[in-house]
Give the backbone structure.
Amino acid sequence: MKETTKILHSIPVDALTGAISTPIYQTSTYVQEAPGVHKGYDYARSNNPTRKVLEDLIATLEGGSNGYAFGSGLAAIDAVVKLLEYGDEIVAVDDIYGGAFRLFTHIYQKFGISVKYVDTTDVANVAEAISAKTKLIWLESPTNPTLKISDIQVIGKLAKAHNVLLCVDNTFASPAAQKPIALGADIVIHSATKYLAGHSDLIAGLVVTRTEALGEKIKFIQNASGAILAPFDSWLTIRGIETLSLRVKQHSENAQKIAEFLLTQDIVNQVYYPGLSQHKNHEIAKQQQKYFGGVVTFDLKIDDKELATKLVSSTKYFKLAESLGGVKSLICLPCEMTHKSIPREIRYQSGVTDSLIRLSVGLEDVEDLIADLQEVFQAVSEKVSITI
Ligand SMILES: Cc1ncc(COP(=O)(O)O)c(C=O)c1O
């Protein structure tokens, strides 16, 4: 059986009614025949049949053992960090999602967990950063927003050799394009808010573990901390996953064309897209990803926040908003939006300049998206007298 067939048919038909669409079990509790005698469900924070279908589905999709659904991507990240103890250390990718940086720095640092940020595109940096205290390596690949690619397989081997867990935030690639567990990761997390749900209509997070034992620990944390995903949002995420591979394929085709268009524009300084042969890590991306994804990032020759602000506020189809991975295209200015919580000098070290613009390329006709950008480039260039 091929992958898409396997995924679609791993979603069970409802045993009670034959419903082909997973029922939404909107309940907080379950009636018991006698104390402790029930059908496997006692309280909806601990277990919910709709959420369970999603959890099993994401475990299948990622090729892991267990899956767990949380109220947001950050709640999923939070659950993984809770595997650690006072005094432990994380080695994390430097170009990390701003919310993860905020959580690590402003919440977990005060509980005695420290983080070393390194450029994980060079495995030597990771090897050098690992100490006796390191318990977790945290990768995003591609990263948000400069789309750096790290060699998951090589870092997985390194993690194993040092008895350190490797967690990969697979939000940007999605499991339609990349399977970190097959490459050696112990844990995969998702902001399911993005490609998995795919329609910009909910906030959700997922964790998948390689092993049952690790899964049991995440399950304990999920129940103990309580940041679970609601039944309706679980249902919407299942529904999103049903079309994931089709969407990611089209997002990627559109993004490739837009990245190639951006390369031809005089106003543009650098284009970041792993599907471009010029991308620093293109070869590794080709090895570990089936598609290159729907996010394209670029910055301007004139690195000016005001100019970039004008640009992102002027597009017609690219709507100015945080988030990504939905069917409609979005545009954002990370320095003022998603990455505002990261200090400027740290931002610049990882390439997040004041004029860096992130596009989440949607499923519109790509000709319209290119025309939208072209029109805005023309208008903005006239203002700063760049000829295009
Ligand atoms: C790569 C990445 N990981 C995690 C998150 C956090 O997810 P959520 O917004 O669902 O909490 C985001 C959000 O933008 C993200 O881009």
